[in-house]
Every structure is written in structure tokens, then in C-alpha cells.
Amino acid sequence: MPPNGRKTSAMSGSNDALDHLKATFAEISAINNAIAVLGWDQNTYMPPGGAAGRAEDLAALAKLAHERLTSRRTGDLLKAAQDHAASLDPASDDASLVRVAQRDYDREVKVPDALVAEIARTSVLAESVWRDARSRNDYPAFAPWVEKTVDLNRRLCECVGYPEQPFDALVDYTEPGMTTNAVRAVFDELRPHLVDLVGKITPQVDNVDDTVLHRQYDEATQERIGREVVARFGYDFNRGRLDRTTHPFETAFNRDDVRITTRYDSRFLSMALMGTMHEAGHGMYEQGISPALAQTPLTGGVSSGMHESQSRLWENFVGRGMPFWRFFYPTLQAAFLDSLGDVEMHQFYRAINKVCPSLIRVEADEVTYCLHIMFRFDLEIALLDGSLAVNDTPAAWNEKVRGYLGITPPNDTVGILQDIHWTTGLGGFQGYALGNIIAAQLWESAHQAHPDLPEQFERGEFGALLHWLNTNIHQHGRKFLPADLLQRATGSALSPQPYVRYLRRKYGEIYSL
Amino acid sequence: MPPNGRKTSAMSGSNDALDHLKATFAEISAINNAIAVLGWDQNTYMPPGGAAGRAEDLAALAKLAHERLTSRRTGDLLKAAQDHAASLDPASDDASLVRVAQRDYDREVKVPDALVAEIARTSVLAESVWRDARSRNDYPAFAPWVEKTVDLNRRLCECVGYPEQPFDALVDYTEPGMTTNAVRAVFDELRPHLVDLVGKITPQVDNVDDTVLHRQYDEATQERIGREVVARFGYDFNRGRLDRTTHPFETAFNRDDVRITTRYDSRFLSMALMGTMHEAGHGMYEQGISPALAQTPLTGGVSSGMHESQSRLWENFVGRGMPFWRFFYPTLQAAFLDSLGDVEMHQFYRAINKVCPSLIRVEADEVTYCLHIMFRFDLEIALLDGSLAVNDTPAAWNEKVRGYLGITPPNDTVGILQDIHWTTGLGGFQGYALGNIIAAQLWESAHQAHPDLPEQFERGEFGALLHWLNTNIHQHGRKFLPADLLQRATGSALSPQPYVRYLRRKYGEIYSL
Prior knowledge:
- 2 copies of one chain form a homodimer.
- Chain A is mainly alpha-helical and 513 residues long.
- The first copy, chain A, folds into 2 domains: 3-138, no CATH class; 180-510, Orthogonal Bundle (Neurolysin, domain 3).
- Chain A is built from 22 helices and 3 strands.
- Chain A has helices at 3-11, 16-44, 51-69, 72-86, 93-108, 113-135, 139-160, 167-174, 180-201, 219-233, 269-287, 304-318, 322-335, 337-340, 345-351, 369-385, 393-405, 430-449, 453-458, 463-472, 482-490, 497-510, and strands at 240-244, 250-254, 257-262.
- The first copy, chain A, has a 3-stranded mixed β-sheet, with helices on both faces.
- Chain A is globular, with a radius of gyration of 23 Å.
- Chain A binds chain B through residues 26-27, 29-31, 33-35, 37-38, 41, 45-50, 52-54, 56-61, 63-64, 236-241, 243, 253-258, 294-295, and chain B through 26-27, 29-31, 33-35, 37-38, 41, 45-50, 52-54, 56-61, 63-64, 236-241, 243, 253-258, 294-295.
């Protein structure tokens, strides 16, 4: 094509290679969406017998998507689209598409299709083993699958490469642009503050009584209340669902079909209530992604940490905050009059904010939560580099729980088997701690932009916060690296200080520190 | 490859081309299974907003599967595998694979990928319009989608070709090897018998009272009973599910993951009860397919008629039969003591077998059911050949209902809008009538093989029947053409006479004809 032909094309904003790329990515996107639907189904409604067939299907689909992404044709199209992309604003959708797709391509082209298929297959099979092992407190039954997962992850890391250590490769999958040492530095900055807070709170842990949360709470009413709360936050049920699963999660097939799940316990109110807010936070992120990014690699959340910032923000900064309960407590109390009729709002607020070292990560309070993550992070690195054997991991887990939290898991079901993550691979935990940290940074910035957020919450209005998040985070999908997106949204780099400030202020007040 | 090289390969039972074919079909099968999961999800749990994205994903996946099936490589592999296949027993799995895959290939290679994608996309979008139009009794809103569906079907027929008339192409999709005229001949043979029976029964229609079916029946109890019944028939819930949908259906992703749905009405007992048996009949077909056929084009039911024979056999021949109720009525009565306590078994048996021309096909009795199909068949042919305009179809529908059944639909919701089928294409109805006909043929043969089937049913034992169906029908999947499979199972060609005998005997007794 003559230069001026190309110029015309660039001027008109279209480009042949880019158009072909988009068509290719629309196809890859359809396969990936199908994979996500199959994954959701596997966790919600698939009959037990379906696991083996599903494993084969998911392996084949993962391989197919990977083949398309890493094909010579995709590589050539990316190359051909670079000039056009360079002529555009780097923040434009098209320039971002080429940049992010090239990054994905460069990593994935190094991974054999067969390894991708094997990881997908193993994940389905491991999950059904985990589910069973967890319910029977039988880590040895699950151990061979952890072994296999570790081995597959090692091979993956060697394929994609890493700047300093193999675990970097896994970190880069969930936190693009970050390294193991960068995560560790943030954790090292945060840890002493948490240890200090826990140390100060522990002696007076009984000053807050949360037994009211363990009264009788009808599950159907819990579900109704959960739906009411998250609908008011802005989770759109016309473009979303809420189902029940063993392990709560969120998944999205596109911005208009987002699914969240939760679990109920009639003797524990906050698990489902706060869990639903948490997953809805994830869901609103996906529902807020720009429709212009649909069917491209730019759709979806940018990182595990950014995703988790959304869930933790709604669950904790909003959902465990006083302003929200000033608005909503009368409704909750009316729904559970038998159990909450004699509980006044401040007492309830203190109960849901009780700090107490506990065994289950997803039910941990805001102060101890990140400690759960930090020791998982250590264990995963040790598993990957071989310094910790799979069979020694339950003992190491329990040792870490003792060291970090001062308690000991009575069995593996509430210890090493509690989380689903090692069915899908290593390297999935650090995002949960980064999420708290980022949430605090976003919270400060949103608050600066809208100083009256607390008053809005007291009136049951959450639109300004959601709009701020939509504008600054959600709509951009994967366009920018997480660090750049955070910088654009807050003007700052990643820092645990806002989270430390938030915790010290809130829990200083609750525990009169 | 030298001839003796090929011979060795044939002797060892393996063949390179065949192995590559199987790998290709495993991939196509994964895509098709994903399409099926997405379809199930669309009908059960997809939020309303998800339709547009789902349509795009399904279009892309359908195109992808079609591309793989019709690629030059698949064509070459098929060609290369023919010699090997010719050296095998034609009834072997491998010879059947090559034969059936070649048949699929020869048809599909004539269809452009883009048309396949457009049909898939249209189907999802049309369905959400239909759902809405049906609930609002608004045929004009749905009409443009019928128009589009008719147009796409015309293009499809012209692509794949036909022996006598365009509709043959559609018949061949659902009833491989059959033509429009062959279907018509069977219908022409059956119709006078049905008209005669209806004519004799109509004057004494009030001799059977089915008002007891319209008493109060708690939906949760209905569901529990439905599950109990079909589990006893042999529907395996470890490899299957039962959910609720607007329009009941069955779908399978593999023999170990089969899904059925039903709908409940607390004032109409038999809809869900018989509907659940019906869908479980479909489900048991899929659950019984040989595992050796997994991930090949041979898995799945062989035709719409054969599939429907399984559902109608369990729903009607078993589920509306006296032996079954001798066994099960006490359980049903105990579950609904308020509504059935004063109803003795014979009265209930007569109620669920009341013959009365009615508007809704899926709730029609055994005698009038096929008449519903016959007029839909006529209308579809007329729509396809253009002799009937889409806008004139509601009037034509109502005219046909008057002509065939002597009643008039009061609105389109219970008329032309009742069935989901025209969202997915034309040519889907004849199988329902063929199903009744085939069911009667299988019923006679199974009965000959096991003369004590009625006594077994009275004891709640259904294993011998299921085993006979597994052995003679289910396990073979798509290996043989429907006519051949029927011949193998019953020693006879397709014939409505067993169905006529069955109806005359059963309803002669109930109505003392």
C-alpha cells in the first residue's frame, strides 16, 4: 500500500491491520467468554459427574484461544498495526488495544498451547478433588493436585520468563508490571502497623461483642436484604445475577452479564451480608467498563489488586462504615426483629467491626485480613521455588497462622484447605492485600472530590461514589497498567499509608486506642 | 505411505488420518458443548441484559465450529481416512465416525460461515423478543424476527440443496435421510385414525373429569415428586440437573452432564409432573450414549424423532399408563392429601388421560397431540416456500387450529406465540409427531422382549425397559441413520400402525368405544 494510502487510512481513524486484529480478538473474546460461562456453571450448577467432560472442554477451549492469540497471523497483524497505533493518542482505545494486546502476545507466545490446555484441565479436576477433600478434612487427597499445580506453574514461569525470580511471572499475570520484591516491599511497609494495631487491640478484644451476629437469621431474608443493599449501591440486576456457591466469587462474560455468588449461614449474619457487598463491588467494576472495549483484550478488570480494591471498598469502607448503617440499620433491624430488636445501631456497628485474629481469610476483620495474605504469599513463593515441599505445607501453614495470628487451626478444613485458589494455580493471593491498600487510596481521592460522601451515604445515596469509580477506574478496563491507572485516579503511586491512616483512625475510635 | 504401511496401520486398528480427525472433532465438540452450555444458561439464568453479548459470542463460536468442520484440512483428513474406514465393519465406531462426519461435512461445506454466525446470532436475539412478545400477546413485535428466520432458513436450504423441495433440507437436519414427502406420507396415514378417534371421543368428552388436576398443588412438593419419579425411571442426577424455565427443554454437554428443565403451576398438577418425565426421557437418551463416542460427531441423539420417542415413551407409554400409577399413586396421593385424598386411582388415571382438543401443544393429550404438529408442519412449509406471508400467519394459525381441533385461540399468546421454535428456525416440529410413532414401535418391541414389563412397573422397576432402550437406541448415538437404527431395534420400518393400535386400545377402553 502506498504511504499516502496508509495516511488516509490513519486519518480516517481506521486501519486494515487494526480492523483484522479487532475481528481476531472478537473471536478470542467469544472463546474466553465461553470459558468464563463454563467456569461459572462449574461452580454453581454443574452436576458432579460433569467434571471430567468439562475439564476436556475447557482444556480444548483454552488451547484454542491461546492458539488464536499466539498465531503468526496475530503477531503479523500486531506488527502491522504498530505504525498506526503510534500515530494515535496513547490513551486512546485503539492505541491501548495494540499496546496491551502486544504485551499479552509477547508473554503468551512463549507458552506452549499444550501447557495452557493442561493448566485448564488440571484446574477443573483439582477443584472437584479440593471440594471433596475440604469437606472430609483430607489434605493428603488434595496434595497430588497441589503438586501438579506447582509443577505446571513452575513450567509456566520458565516459559514466560521473569526479571528477578520465577514468582515474578505469576505476579505479572495478576498485577501487570509488578514484581515479587515490589509486593514484598509494600507488605514490609504495612506489616509493622498491622502488628502494632493487633497488639494494642488484642488485650481488649472482649470490649467489642459480636455474638449478636450469631443469632438466628433466616437465609431467605438474608438474601433479600443482600439484594436490596447491593442494588442500592448500584449493582445492576438487569445485567447481573446473584447465586449461591461453596466459595463466593464474581465473574463477568461482558459488562452486561455479570455474576456474583455468596453463601449463607443462618447463624452468622455478616458472612453473606458483607460477602454480597464484596462480590457486588467486583461486579460493579465489570458493569462499569466502557462498552467501546467490548470484545477486545481491554475489557475486564486490569489487575487482581484493582479488582479487589473495588470489592473491599464497598464491603468495608462503605459497608462497615457508620454512615451506611445510619441509613440502613433500621431496615436490617426491621427484617430481623427477633435477633436485632434489642441491638442498637452503635452496638451493631461495633460488632461488625470487631477485630479478632481468626482462621478464615474471607471472614477476617479489616486489621488482620492482610496478615492472612502475607503468609500465603510467603508459602506460595516457597512452594514455587521448591524450598517448601507440598507434603510439608499443612504444617508450614499452621506454623504461619500461629506466627502471624497467634492461633492454631484445629484442622485443615479451616486451615490450608479453606481456599479454592490452589486448584487454579499459585500467585493469586497478593491482590487481596493490594486491594485493601488501593481501596484506601481511592477512598481518600473520592472523598476529596466529594467531601459530602458520608452525608450522601446517610441518605442512602451511593451514586456519586460509583460515578467517581466508574470515571476514574471502571471504564478504562485494561487500557492502562495498574500503576498508571492508580496514578491517573489518585495522583499517587501505590502506598499503604492511606490504609494505615484509615485503620488507625477507625479502630483507634472503636477501641479507644 | 507405502500400501503395506497403510495395511499395518489398518490392522493395528489405528490410522493417522483418523487420529487427526478425532483430535479435530474433539476440538469442534468442545466448541459445540460450550455453545450448548451458553444456550442452557441463556434459557435458565442469563440476566436480561446479557442477550446482546451472548448473541455475539454464540455467533462467533458457531462460526468457529463451522470453520473447523468445513476446513480444507478436515476435508482432506476425511478423504485420507476413507480407505481405512472401508476396511472396517461398517457398524464399528470408527467406520461410523468417518461416514457420519463425511455426511455432516458434505452438507456443511456448502454453507458459508457467515450464514451460520447470522443464524446463531438471530436465534438469541429473536428469543428475547419472543419471550417478551409472548408475555404481551404482541405478535407484530415478533413478526420481523420470524421474517428474518424464514429468510435465513431459505438461504440455508438453497446452500445445502434438497432432493425435491427446499423444506427437505430442514427435514434432513433433524431427521437425517428423510424428506418432506416421506413425513407427509406418514402423517397422511396417521391423520384419519386420529380424526376418527377424536370424532368418537368428542361427544363423550365429559365422561372423563380432569378437574382434580386443577386443585391446589404446592410447587415445591411437585418438584420433589417429579425428581423422585424420574430418578426411579433411571435419570441420573449425579450426571444431570433439573431447573425451571419458561419453556421446558433438555440439553446435554456430554453423557455425564445432562440438563432438563420444567415449569410449575400450583393449579395444574400434570404440567410439571408429566413434563418432567418427558424431559427426563430425553435426558436418559443422552445419559445412555456410549462413552466411546464422546467428543466425536457420533455423540448426541440421532434425530429429533428418535429423541422425542424417548421423551414420549416415558411421559405417556409409561407415565400415563395404569401399571406405573398402580405403583406410584399412593405416594402421589400421600404427598397431596388435601387435593387427592378423595380421588381414587382409576379416577386419577382417567383424569390424566382425558382427551380434549386444547390450545397448548405441550399439554395436549396423546390423541390430539399429533394434530398440533401436522398443522405446524403445513404452516412451516408454506412460510418457507413463500405461499404464506409472515404477517398472515396468526390468522392462518387460528384457521388451522379451528380446522384440526375445532377450537379457536382467544389470543396469540396461546396461539402462534406459544412455542419457542421459530426463534431457532423452521423445520423443528415434525419430530414431535414422529416421536410418538417411533415410541409405539419401540414400546411394542420392548414389550415383546420383556412381556412382564407391566408387572415390573407395578413394582416400581423400570430398569429392564431402560436397559432395552440403552442397548437398542441410546448407546449408538448418531452412528446409524434413524431409519436404520429403528430397523435394527424393531425389525421394522417407520410405521404409524403401532401408535394407532396403542391409541385405539387405550382410549377405546377409557372411553368404552
